UniProtKB/TrEMBL annotation:
<dbReference type="InterPro" id="IPR022898">
    <property type="entry name" value="RNase_HII"/>
</dbReference>
<dbReference type="GO" id="GO:0043137">
    <property type="term" value="P:DNA replication, removal of RNA primer"/>
</dbReference>
<keyword id="KW-0378">Hydrolase</keyword>
<dbReference type="GO" id="GO:0003723">
    <property type="term" value="F:RNA binding"/>
</dbReference>
<dbReference type="GO" id="GO:0004523">
    <property type="term" value="F:RNA-DNA hybrid ribonuclease activity"/>
</dbReference>
<keyword id="KW-0479">Metal-binding</keyword>
<dbReference type="GO" id="GO:0006298">
    <property type="term" value="P:mismatch repair"/>
</dbReference>
<keyword id="KW-0255">Endonuclease</keyword>
<dbReference type="InterPro" id="IPR001352">
    <property type="entry name" value="RNase_HII/HIII"/>
</dbReference>
<dbReference type="InterPro" id="IPR012337">
    <property type="entry name" value="RNaseH-like_sf"/>
</dbReference>
<keyword id="KW-0540">Nuclease</keyword>
<feature type="binding site">
    <location>
        <position position="20"/>
    </location>
    <ligand>
        <name>a divalent metal cation</name>
    </ligand>
</feature>
<feature type="binding site">
    <location>
        <position position="112"/>
    </location>
    <ligand>
        <name>a divalent metal cation</name>
    </ligand>
</feature>
<protein>
    <recommendedName>
        <fullName>Ribonuclease HII</fullName>
        <ecNumber>3.1.26.4</ecNumber>
    </recommendedName>
</protein>
<comment type="function">
    <text>Endonuclease that specifically degrades the RNA of RNA-DNA hybrids.</text>
</comment>
<dbReference type="Pfam" id="PF01351">
    <property type="entry name" value="RNase_HII"/>
</dbReference>
<dbReference type="InterPro" id="IPR024567">
    <property type="entry name" value="RNase_HII/HIII_dom"/>
</dbReference>
Length: 202
């Protein structure tokens, strides 16, 4: 998990920011990105792609990362903006926001399969959240942040089961949308096929 970081450390590059986002494929809610700079040589046991970890493990690692990181930035782009500029651009915007929130200027960016709008040298790594500790740390910060937002959204919009599926297109979520219609936090551009099907059925 430190191969990419080690290559940069060997070149005397100290501040490496791992960047990742979550919520790209959701029908509901904001897309959230995080940028994390970890100390040289730090090894966090058990860290991995946030999707491969249990909620309990993610929460534990979230606290460790918050405690050990040199700097953490979080970017959030709402569902209205997602509909306006498309999800790819919204994810990139959230990543740039996360980068701008860092209190330390990174010298290099390791990004999960994406390019960030920045003049800072960067490398896009496919499946980076499973290959780079820095990206995995960002993945965990972003995932836990968004999951906790989902709990609040569930209280605001209890009929959709957001706390269970986190806004993804599960069978339950699709059924609840057809039953109750979309909320103000649903991404309408993502719902076109589903809502068109409803019109055809009724």
């Amino acid at each position: 998990m430190l191969q990419f970081e080690q290559e940069l450390w060997d070149k005397q590059i100290q501040y490496i920011a791992g960047i990742d986002e979550v919520g790209r494929g959701c029908l509901f809610g904001d897309v959230v990105a995080a940028a994390v700079i970890l100390p040289i040589g730090l090894v966090i046991e058990g860290i991995n792609d946030s999707k491969k970890l249990s909620e309990k493990k993610r929460d534990l690692l979230y606290d460790i990362i918050r405690d050990q990181a040199l700097a953490i930035g979080v970017g959030i782009v709402d569902c209205i903006t997602v509909d306006q500029i498309n999800i790819k651009q919204a994810a990139r915007l959230a990543m740039r926001q996360a980068l701008e929130q860092l209190t330390i200027q990174p010298e290099y960016l390791l990004v999960d399969a994406e390019k960030v709008d920045s003049s800072i040298p960067q490398k896009a790594i496919i499946h980076g959240d499973a290959l780079s500790q820095s990206i995995a740390a960002a993945s965990i910060i972003a995932k836990v942040t968004r999951d906790r937002m989902c709990l609040e959204w569930d209280r605001q919009h209890p009929v959709y089961g957001i706390a269970l599926h986190k806004g993804y297109a599960t069978k339950l979520h699709r059924e609840r949308i057809l039953m109750h219609g979309p909320s103000a936090l649903h991404r309408l551009t993502f719902l076109k096929k589903l809502l068109n099907l409803q019109q055809e059925l009724f």
